[in-house]
Model the fold of this input.
Amino acid sequence: MRRYLIGIDGGGSRSKALLADRRDDTAVALAEGPSLNPLALSWDEFRGRIADMLLRLLSDAPEGVVEGLCAGLAGAGREVMRQRAEDEIIALGGGYPVKVLTDAQVGLWGAFRGGPGLLLIAGTGSVCLGMDETGRQERAGGFGRLIADEGSGYWIAMEAVRQALREDDRGRTSPLAALVKDEFHLEELRDVIPVVHGPQCPPDCIAALARRVMESSGALPEAGDIVRRAGDHLAELVFIAAGKLEMDPPRVALWGGLWQSPGGELRSALDAALHHRAVPADVTTPAEPPEWGAIRYLERRMKDEG
Done:
């Protein structure tokens, strides 16, 4: 009989689940779904989304036994939230051990297959999470958009909005205004105010403006300055996390939608900022995606427990 592990990457916008065969370390089934962030859902909604994803994941798989599930969830940074999420998944009746981590943690486990390094995430939000040879973890940033997510897609977008509105207040038209109006399909710049404050455009919708800002950074000095400062902020996260873990030089894997820009504008800004700080980082792409990171975490835990 086949022996399976389930790994889930429950991001803030989308989620992915993987059914892995322990016999040959292959993916047997994949399922995708909406966000699993328990801070943004009721527990009934959370339980329903998890149940639906697991049903689709297991429905067509060959007969076997699931020996463990690990879910990395956005919004699960506090122990009380992790424990409640674990309890909700266990209540579904699978009968296997369940472990909940954050989405950044499973991303880190996938980035270096459980080895030491730093994962620098820049998507809707931003955070740098690291692990040393002993398994000790440290982080920098990741406080959320309402406190501080500098260098993130949301921050880049809101910097463009703020600058455009400040110039409008002074009776001047910022080149950034056209980017804002085009992205949100507005006739007037000030129509962006209810968009930002209203429920119809969630954080990932606002963060989508960052793509336009990055693409325009070569032609528009105002956009270029925002991207440069974003690179500075992200380099600072690397500097702080590497210092906490005494990594010199640090290995840094990049993860998140902002790094996928075809022009590589943010990557260039990060490289320049790291050079300025004299941080000789080895920057690379993750070895495996977060859902596989959840699998690697389970494998290590099961090995350690004998």
Summary: Residues 221-245 form the longest helix (25 residues). The domain at 2-113+288-304 is CATH 3.30.420.40 (Nucleotidyltransferase; domain 5).
